[in-house]
Design goal:
heterodimer, A: about 180 residues, mainly alpha, about 75% helix, globular, B: about 110 residues, two-stranded antiparallel ribbon, about 5% strand, rod-shaped
């Protein structure tokens, strides 16, 4: 069990910052194939983050599509191609926040359907119960696997704020995990 | 909360994320493609026109330059002896046929 957890933690994120720099630059130049390559590489983790953030797979798919569309349109303005992943995850967080504000309370029923084991369900519930500003930090840090600095950049907040929010979120979630 | 407890939370959240049914590859590819297709329709078309417009203008200019000699030949009398169209070549003094007929008549009279 511990070994499995170690493997999970050691698993690299979709593509390391800087790793796809050349592809990002090609996409910035209008190369749609390069952008699709990036999207296919990053979309699975973004999708997971969005499912946890929104609690609904259909909403997550819609938010993913909006994220990729916004990314393609905004890509020429990205100044640091090596920070593509944190930039993209930040867009996803904002799109999820927009989607979260648009829906409710109709989607609540759909959210209940998502979930596997009781622990997972409780944890999902606990994540969903977090205030949005704490939830975004948790998901960017532990699902998107951004560093504190990258999370701060993605959410346009200070690193100190990321640290304090992450600590508060962990505290709340720890009570569920037991 | 100590560091070990913090790590436990991080791992639990990450494990939860990995439990989520992934999107099928085809679905991911479709979403990725859709993003660029919509965007192409919105933003790439003007760029294509920006490239196409000067090319079209250059083409039109070249075509008009090529057309100029043809236009000259069909308008008014020409000083050229090379007949390049089906019409009878015109000289300032009259058409080539008129001049030949006049010369023949003059010879017969002489």
């Amino acid at each position: 069990m511990e070994a499995a957890e170690e493997t999970l933690v050691a698993k690299p994120r979709p593509a390391p910052e800087g790793g796809g720099g050349e592809t990002v630059r090609r996409a910035q130049g209008g190369d749609a194939d390069a952008f699709e390559e990036l999207a296919v590489a990053y979309a699975p983790r973004l999708y997971r983050m969005l499912v946890l953030r929104l609690g609904d797979e259909r909403d997550a798919r819609d938010a993913l599509q909006e994220t990729l569309l916004a990314a393609w349109q905004g890509l020429p303005r990205l100044r640091e191609p090596e920070h593509f992943w944190s930039w993209l995850a930040g867009i996803a967080a904002h799109k999820a926040a927009d989607a979260g504000r648009r829906r409710l309370p109709v989607a609540q029923a759909a959210e209940e359907a998502v979930g596997d084991s009781s622990v997972s369900l409780e944890l999902r519930e606990a994540i969903r119960a977090l205030p949005p500003h704490l939830r975004d930090v948790v998901l960017l840090r532990y699902v998107a696997q951004l560093s504190e600095e990258e999370t701060a950049r993605a959410l346009r907040i200070r690193v100190g704020t990321v640290k304090s929010r992450a600590a508060r979120a962990r505290q709340a979630l720890a009570e569920v995990i037991g | 909360m100590n560091e070990i407890e913090a790590k436990r939370v991080e791992r639990a959240v990450e494990r939860l994320a990995n439990e989520i049914e992934p999107l099928p590859d085809e679905e991911v590819a479709k979403i990725a493609y859709a993003a660029t297709v919509v965007a192409r329709a919105r933003s790439r078309r003007p760029r294509r026109w920006r490239i196409a417009a000067p090319v079209a203008l250059a083409g039109a200019a070249a075509a008009s330059l090529l057309a100029v000699p043809w236009v000259d030949r069909s308008d008014g009398p020409s000083t050229s002896s090379a007949a390049t169209s089906g019409e009878i070549v015109q000289f300032p003094e009259g058409s080539a046929l008129d001049r030949l007929l006049a010369a023949a008549q003059k010879g017969r009279n002489a």
